[in-house]
Structure prediction request, 93 residues.
Amino acid sequence: MEQRSESQIKADLEAARADLSGTVEELSDYFSPKANVQRAKADAQQKVRSLADKAQDTVEQASEGKPEAIKKVAAVAGGALLLGALLVRRMLK
Prediction:
């Protein structure tokens, strides 16, 4: 077995310490409530952007006369009207 010098041992210890420090920082970030809220917020914003893009594409396709897109827009409009009617009915009770 090869003997290691004091400087090699110190270098190994420093490398291990740096690696451990990075791991602790990663774990700290992973379990941080603030970081978790930020990640969840970013994920939700991305999903909303994606849905908005899909809705815009569908509306554009409907305006071009594509039957499948027209059906989707009509279904959403009908659902919105139904929801509005139910809300008005509930408020009048």
The chain has a mean pLDDT of 93.
